[in-house]
Amino acid sequence: MKHTFALILAGFLALTGLWAAPRPAVTPADLPEGEPKILGAVIARADGSFLGLQVVAGNFKLSFYDTKKKAIAPNVSQARATWPNPRGQGDLRTMLNLSENALVGAKPVLPPYTYNVRLVLLQGTGEQQQVVESFVVPFRG
Fold first, then answer.
1. Parent domain of 69
2. Are 111 and 92 in contact (CB under 8 A)?
3. Is the peptide bond before 86 cis (omega within 30 degrees of 0)?
4. In terms of C-beta density within 10 A (0-12 exposed, 13-18 middle, 19 or more buried), how is residue 97 classed?
5. What is the pTM of this model?
6. Which of 45, 55, 38, 43 is CA-nearest to residue 105?
7. What SS3 string covers 11-38?
8. Residues 30-60: pLDDT tens digits?
9. Which of 8, 38, 106, 116 has the greatest number of C-beta atoms within 10 Å?
């Protein structure tokens, strides 16, 4: 019985190539230039550009991408995110402000990260602030 299992395992490994000689390591220079990757939940905008919503260091981070999925600077001044409280009643909210090349929230986001996030993009400041776009994002971060 022990020998039969060993023979079956050896045959399986030989067929799948796991018993073959080790392959040389693949370096990033060997990989083909593929389509750029958007980090986080991907949001398509009306003008053909994209947004990427993710949780970084416990806070929401909203990144902006052009039509070719290359990172760009935000074209809005702020964003507001609202999501259900996973540990109680009501909703949680945060304002996402400019930080380097993205908009980042100040309020911590608690796991589990499985809810719909209502995202509103804002332009301007104070009383002159206007809603530019709004989205409901099924976030599964």
1. 36-140
2. no
3. no
4. middle
5. 0.74
6. 55
7. HHHHHHCCCCCCCCCCCHHHCCCCCCCC
8. 445 667 889 899 999 999 999 999 999 999 9
9. 38
Check if the beta carbon of residue 46 is closer than 8 Å to that of residue 133.
Answer: yes
Domain count, the chain: 1
In a domain, 80, yes or no: yes
pLDDT tens track for 7-38: 565 665 555 554 444 444 444 444 456 678 89
CATH code of the domain covering residue 80: 2.60.40
| Cβ atoms < 10 Å from Cβ of 60 | 26
**Token pair of 62, please?**
């909203």
Does residue 61 sit within a domain? yes
The per-residue DSSP string of 62-100 comes to EEEE-TTS-EE--SSSEEEEEEE-TTSSSEEEEEEEEET
Task: Judge whether residue 135 has pLDDT over 80.
Answer: yes
Contacts of 39 (CB under 8 A, 6+ apart): 52, 54, 63
3-state secondary structure of 56: strand
Residue 16 lies in a domain: no
* 78-97 confidence digits (pLDDT tens): 999 999 988 889 999 999 99
